[in-house]
Amino acid sequence: MTASRLSPPVIDIDPFGTEVLTNPYPLEHALLAAGPLSYLSAHDVYAVARYDAVYAALRNWQGFQSGAGVGLSNFRTEKPWRRLSIVVEADPPHHDAPRRVLANLLGPRAQRGLRAEWMAKAHKMVGKVLDGAPGSTVEFDAVTAIAEKFPPRAVGDALGMPEEGRENLLPFSDFLLNAFGPRNELVAAGAPHAKFLTTWVMEHCRRDKLTEDGLGGQIWAAADRGEITHEQAPGVVRSLFAAGFNTTAHALAAVMHALVTHPEQWRRLRAEPSLARIAFDEAVRWASPVQTFFRTAVGDVPVGDHIVPDGAKVLMFLGAANRDPRRWADPDKFDLSRDPSGHVGFGFGLHQCVGQNLARLEAECLITALAERVETLEPAAPGKRRLNNTLRAWHSIPVRARLAR
Amino acid sequence: MQDAGTAQTTLRVVAKDVVAEGVVTLVLKAADGARLPDWTPGSHIDLVLPGGLTRQYSLCGDRWNAYEYRVGVLRETDGRGGSAYVHDELRQGDTVGVSRPRNNFPLVPAKNYLFIAGGIGITPLLPMVHQAELLGADWKLVYGGRTKDSMAFLDELAGYGERVHIVPEDEQGRPDLQAALGEVHVGLRVYCCGPPGLLDAVENACAPWPAPTLWTERFSAPEQGAPVRGEPFDIVLARRGATVTVTKDMTVIDAMRAVGVDLLSSCMEGVCGTCETTVLDGVVDHRDALLTAEDRAAGDRMFPCVSRSCTDRLVLDL
To answer: Where are chain B's structural domains?
Structure first.
């Protein structure tokens, strides 16, 4: 073994520190420059950031497992202090059946069934926000009035859950996504509500809280057919609560932010509304709402000239991979003429986001509804971030929109 | 860089071994050594044979090795020539067209499994017993065949000890299904693959059992598409009024990109669903792992990252 195989470049910046969470790009640049593999001394973990290395790590479920947790904690050696997801934090063979049920449920058939309904819901929501005469100017917060509002409405209804308590959906996922990082002040700030939120979600995974024909009820029906066990059903429903709202909300916030700050791209979109889907994926590439996930090495896994030793945690920087100049021309530019296909914003491989096409559908419905009514968009004030250990989230994006005549 | 979708449609035969009387196994690898698409126990792939014939074979290797597929092929005396070609013509080093893995026979979670194999029907069950073992389930395999010499993988199964019951018909007669099933109890899952006679017998034996007990695969699968084209075909992009020719070594998405038309896609393996496209005319050669048999028959949508055309042209709503 050569010396370089033993020692990848060491970076001592804390990827979960306030400075990095506020502005991740300096660390991402340092990681991209350092090589295919780095070592992060602040947490005794390895890091991959270049597109090729992240793409390979995401696909290599045999070498980089999820079952020891996709957060910083290593549940191969530590006693779990939080509940592991039976979907996101499971490896084959345990992962197979829950994944298959979700993939069938959220596949092309579901999308066809939801399109008309979600388009109507998007028009209704956008119509309420754009409350003004043709040609007038309205101001709204793209985060609270649209991005955080639409998934609980659209996906909450599709899931078949009660109206009451939907305000718990985003805080629940906020806590989970913070808990993938170290137990820092962000985790501490969420801790007092965690128990209440977790209890509330587990209660709403029960069959009697879900309509029979909604996605939640259909997961229970899959258990009746033997495709998963009845013991697994609440965990599979819970994965929709954990991953079906907050990540989409901040992917929608990302595309809103991108369009508001790029008036020339908004003009293009207005002229060619079928670019709505490209706009969303390009925003997911450009902003990477889910910034990072961990894996755990199974055996010694080679990355470039180095080795990730058995049992070590590896942090995958999706945001850095999505702006790696080795893969993307002019990567920092939000550009609707780009083909964003192949970005890793939804992950890749076995654990790639199983609901990604529902997120695309939500975005397409909202962007289409906005493009029909809004002539120009501009910031009404600078946007404010909400820090999270995993999610690159927005607190507010004040927008001024001039309505079409 | 992402693997090209086409790189994995042609694989190289890196090993061909006779493993029982009339049974060969093929080990397949990408020519460039790339990872192959993931699969789960019960999955099959299509082998595309000369003349565009496709035959389905269950994957019976180890999915923890992402670089190889293994299939077992029985010489069928009254078959349609597919198995004879594999036995007599196909050699180590040859290339063969391969579809993405699809699974119509998935292993569902349970504490108790009874696996019943008849002859070459052992192939999908082989990865299943491995998986049942990994899950720590209580399981039993009853494997019937004409003679011991005709039964493949006995050496690999020997490691499982008493869980495996080998029943050569010339020595012991047919397997006693009632004895294998035992008393009716909720939670047992029975997986059976083999000749129609065995499947019928198992279906009868399981009749008194509660509903999701029995899962079967008949290996004369009814899902038989039109012959696969070797020749180029045209894609008509109806909204743009453009026509693009797709040759053998490119995907539909590649061909479109070459003329400057991008289509949003992601996995390039027919599993994520991002590139779903509406088909206005023509017959699709579906290669994805997403559409149900019913959806395929409807023929009004496709995943152009992997799927192709059976007809001279396909008209797409693009």
So the answer is: 2-99, 112-218, 233-316
